[in-house]
## 1
Amino acid sequence: MNEADARYLIVGAYAVIYHTEPRYTKDMDIWTDPARDNAAKVWDALVRFGAPLADLTPADLSDPDVVFQIGIEPNRVDILPAVEGLTFQEAWERRAIGTYEDQEIFVLDYESTLRAKKASGREQDLLDARRLEAIKKNPV
């Protein structure tokens, strides 16, 4: 994604892990800016990666109802065009910037991660929200 200059944020369990501590997860969720120009950059990044794109078009990456999955659990990557309760532009402006193997990575910030986890309402997400709140009260 970085080489294609695509705007993306690591969200979901990996964002929780970034802000708290490691836990098991079945996939990595990557939220991409659904703007058409960015969707084209994400498409380019997926082509370079060698993703199986037979049933996907660049326009699909802007569709809020399309989640593109690569791989199988526990090594699956989900490309998301939307995250409940958040807008990409606001989240992008608040993003956390980390590094992984000398590459800059963009992660959903703490407050937005907490808000998204609460908005989801799923059991695991509510557990994650409690973990996020606990770490804020008792920083490591």
Note: The helical segments are 12-19, 36-49, 88-94, 110-120, 123-137.
## 2
Amino acid sequence: MTSLTAILAVLLFLGVLCAVAAVLGRRPTPDRPVTDRPEPRAHPRRALTRRILG
């Protein structure tokens, strides 16, 4: 096995490991229901502009 193949195999393994961790981290628990996206927050500069303009 060449060094390039070894590096690619390690990167593939790490990618699969991260994908499994992401899937396991999204599982809902009784105290923390799963949410697809967090609540969108207004951009600070946009909020400041609205406050100035009224």
Note: DSSP finds two helices and no strands in the chain.
## 3
Amino acid sequence: MKSKAISLKILPFLILLTINCMGQNMNNQFSLGGDWFYKLDEQRVGIKEKWFEKNNVRYDGNLKVPDFFETQISKEFDGWLWYFREFDFSSSPEEKKLALFFEGVDDDASIWINGKFVGEHKGYSERFYFDISQFVNDGKNFITVLVSDQGGPGGIYKPVYLKYYSTEQELFETEYSKQVARKSLDWVKEGIIYEIFPRSFSKEGTFKSIIKKLPYLKDLGVTILWIMPVHPIGEIKRKGNLGSPYSVKNYYEINPEYGTKEDFKELILEAHKSGFKVIIDEVLNHCAWDNELVKKYPQWFTHDKDGNMIPPNSSWTDVVDFNYDNPELRKYMIDVLKYWVKEFDIDGYRMDVSELVPTDFWEEARNELEKIKSQFWLSEGTLPEHHLKAFDMTYSWNVYDLFKPLLDDEKSPQTLFNTLKIEKYTFPKNSLRMRFNENHDKIRATEIFGYDGSLLTVAVVFSLNGVPLVHAGQEVGEKEFSSLFEKTEINWEQNLNTNEHYNLIKKLIQLRKNIPGLSLGEITPISIDDKILAFTNTNSGKGICAFFNFSKNVKSIDLNFVNELKSFKYDLKNITGRKFSIDEERMGRPADKIINLEPMGFAIFEISK
């Protein structure tokens, strides 16, 4: 049986682990995987005490990289975790630059080489690197990584390595970028996804209450309803009073708090009548401890060295981890997926923690499910290989993680274009990414980005290529975080006519519907001002032009001098935006092509050739 739990060996004396990079050359890439030393920093004193300097700290033990910290240590921990190791280095005869490359860290990372600060990266899951050419010495070098874990499992959970490079394309380009993503249905490519947690969606928290809201959702303009898990919730080791919907007690039943199977069928039927597509959240990486499968098929689960079933990590204590090495488990799960499509006519799935389940299983399952009906599958992950055969779409954490640094003036708005360029180097051609500024795993946008920031970032989401997500409640500026474990409720008692979030999102949805093809559009940067994010998103000669002011000053944009617009026609009478004005006259001459943006203001308009 596979074991995700790795025992910690506490060494009586501490010797830094060494890697001879020149002996591991594969395409100028040298793995830093294996044993690292670590130390927990519960008081967050490591920077002040200079733990990043060699021999300046006593380690707690050693860890394997890549892996989640909680997988190896039987302790739930959120906060600061330090990683340390040595490596040998010899300078490149080709005189290329040297990158320290991370495939993914959960959540934020700060890096030191030989006691010198290299940089920090904020955000979960996405690939990133630092040029460390000026920080390394011939011979032994000391690397320190501080991981700041914001919640759930954390650590250096994907590969990390050194790599020689000349260009970023050479550094980031994957084998998948030369391939083409699976072809998605038109309603997927042109979709507006709306995420619903039945418990918090209304006071009743039922399927029938969602049915009552369908006319409202139709008027808003969303097209794909994503319903979070609908199954009964486990009671053993439950978190909170009501428990997480991601702790599934029975894959073939409906959570009685939401209603009956007949109620769910009615919801799907009425949604289809109203023109919606419906996908449901499915949780196949783990299940509740009181799911009948635990006693019936113990061989389907992950065990530790003592033979005990274990959760995926020490944070997810309310669930037990499946072992997909078992063919019978794979068949069972494919049958589960078939059941909900056949019996309820759902239109697809959002697959929870999809990166933790083998990709070949997803590919096999998708192939079987497509024999029933064409569907939409959303991966809660960022793996480029998911786009080839199994999934239509992955999460765009890369863009989400930029919003806070941009709003806090820690990064230039132009950073977004480099992020999108790296995305092209990484993913198959025509890959669909789900863009968002809010989802159920994160604090509400109005809280984390502020009132103005939540409006500006959702406008960026709808202006980019990819498929936009609206998290239920964000369209009315909801501030309360929807707990997975307790009852919360969206405040619907608002005047929609005067609600700025509602009216903006409704306009943005209509803008997307006016211009088919934006999800696979070409993003062309417009260089105006370092604090202005400006670009066009076009497909087949039609698209949008967007300007966003991240500065603290009013900015004027004279469209007469924007070269990227010279070949397009446009009409500024139908701008979607806020905190902007258009000059009718300047210096006694017509100036109807000058847009003034206040701080946090933005303007988006249609363009065509």
Note: The chain has three domains: 21-172, 190-516, 522-608.
